[in-house]
Design brief:
Elements (H helix, E strand, L loop, with lengths): L7 E2 L4 E3 L2 E3 L4 E2 L4 E4 L4 E3 L4 E2 L4 E4 L5 E3 L4 E2 L4 E3 L2 E2 L4 E2 L4 E2 L4 E2 L4 E2 L4 E2 L4 E2 L4 E2 L4 E3 L4 E3 L4 H8 L4 H6 L9 H18 L1
Parallel strand pairs: 1-4, 2-5, 3-6, 4-7, 5-8, 6-9, 7-10, 8-11, 9-12, 10-13, 11-14, 12-15, 13-16, 14-17, 15-18, 16-19, 17-20
Antiparallel strand pairs: 20-21
């Protein structure tokens, strides 16, 4: 079921690769739903608003439940969003994160990689959630956010280059990532 006949997708939205959209759902102008190695799966009666980006990654699909709103310019990559959840304008949910049912990720909030937001939880405007179980911190507490983020090993988890494993990590990361993307763009 790529796009259910009862779903609606704006002409200016971009669907790239394995994108599945459930009945009654709407994808609005300028939204980008892209399979960069895993599908993007949208449930029933879910709304993806203008300019939102939803991107499956090589090991992590984007899976969104039923009756969800993904706000304008939200960015979701390789994550799972439960049903009846609200992801607000400019919010970001990163690879391996799970936002359970009935949760809210408010304007400009960030749910970091490998983080779990329990059902019914709210990540406040501009705050950062990190870890499993999630610690939710205001953005001015950088040292605490970094202390929770560092062991999650972003470069290792997302790009397969564990922190400290090579002398020039960005050279290794960009080389691997560009090779993967080139293969997808050629196909």
């Amino acid at each position: 079921m790529p796009v259910d006949p009862e779903a609606r997708v704006a002409r200016s939205a971009i669907l790239n690769g394995d994108v599945r959209i459930g009945a009654g759902s709407c994808v609005l102008d300028g939204a980008v739903l892209s399979d960069h190695g895993a599908p993007v799966i949208i449930g029933r009666e879910t709304i993806v608003m203008e300019g939102a980006v939803l991107r499956g990654t090589p090991h992590h699909p984007v899976v969104i439940g039923d009756n969800v709103i993904v706000g304008p310019k939200a960015y979701l990559t390789g994550c799972t969003i439960g049903s009846r959840t609200f992801v607000a304008t400019n919010a970001s949910v990163f690879t391996g994160a799970v936002v359970e049912d009935d949760a809210e990720v408010r304007i400009g909030a960030i749910v970091h990689l490998r983080t779990r937001i329990p059902s019914g939880t709210t990540v406040p405007i501009g705050w950062v959630a990190v870890g499993d179980p999630a610690t939710i911190l205001p953005p001015d507490r950088h040292d605490e956010i970094w202390a929770a983020m560092e062991p999650l090993d972003f470069p290792g988890f997302v790009f397969g280059v564990p922190r400290g494993s090579v002398d020039e990590p960005m050279v290794e990361i960009t080389s691997r990532y560009a090779r993967t993307l080139r293969g997808r763009l050629d196909g």
